[in-house]
């Protein structure tokens, strides 16, 4: 593959990825379901006043806005301008000031070692090529700086939702990896490698009480969540497959409700520091944050 063809393929992939997240109404998913995760990530990262922070795949700003409210100087980056537009409005309503930048998580338009902290809240995990995205996270973080992520786990509810949708979804291009892999500890260790130290990972759960039934969950995601909408569009001409996916998602929701009114959505909190100097293929030693 020539460099020109590879670049074109990359643009096409980014365009398709952007279109998925522009579909539906992610604002409702962010505000009604996952808003607490942004605050949890800011707390786990220890972000404080004056620090320069990059939120990668920031979406509508679930982590960016709390980070700015904590006094950090925040750049919120995302591939999807529709989500950034919602985020800008939410930030203005919250009375915080931050920068919003359209950017691909796999090719961030920032210099090496630019940020005191680089974070992502259920965002970078959806970049198609995990190693490329991980390399970018590390590259733009300053030596001794903080990396902090929240990712859905494969075993948790959202990971199981993607597993349920997989047989009905469009076939991904070669090299694309499943997002919930970012919720596996061994996978994260492999992606970050020896370039970080103080790597800590903890599984937690988000309590979701919005849905009384599995069908209510399914219908909410079918109307609002880009990946679910895209999956249904892929099988729209096959009524039997649509019915099968309807039943499978409703059953999944009902199973995680388990007779109660609350679901527990498992996620992985990841924190680390970038090593402070580089020899050979990567950085080796870490200094504490200054």
What does this molecule look like?
The protein has 290 residues and is of the alpha/beta class. The protein has a domain of 188 residues: Rossmann fold. It is built from ten helices and nine strands. The strands form two sheets. The chain has a seven-stranded mixed beta sheet, with helices on both faces. The N terminus and C terminus are likely disordered. InterPro entries: Methyltransf_11 (IPR013216), SAM-dependent_MTases_sf (IPR029063). One of its GO terms (molecular function) is S-adenosylmethionine-dependent methyltransferase activity. It comes from Mycobacterium kyorinense. This is Methyltransferase type 11 domain-containing protein. It holds the Pfam family Methyltransf_11.
Which features characterize this protein?
about 290 residues; alpha/beta; Rossmann fold; 7-stranded mixed sheet; about 45% helix; globular; disordered N terminus
Instruction: Give the SSE order as H and E letters.
Output: HHEHEHEEHEHHEHHHEEE
User: What class do helices, strands and sheet pairing give?
Assistant: alpha/beta
Sheet of most strands: 7 strands, mixed
CATH class category of one domain: Alpha Beta
Strand content: 15-25%
CATH level-3 fold name of one domain? Rossmann fold
Shape: globular
| End-to-end CA span | 44 Å
Provide the CATH superfamily of one domain: Vaccinia Virus protein VP39
In percent, how helical is the residue content? Answer: 40-55%
Number of strands: 9
Number of helices: 10
The largest beta-sheet arranges its strands as: 3-2-1-4-5-7-6
Low-pLDDT windows of residues: 1-10, 278-290
CATH architecture of one domain: 3-Layer(aba) Sandwich
The radius of gyration over CA amounts to 19 Å
Mean pLDDT: 91
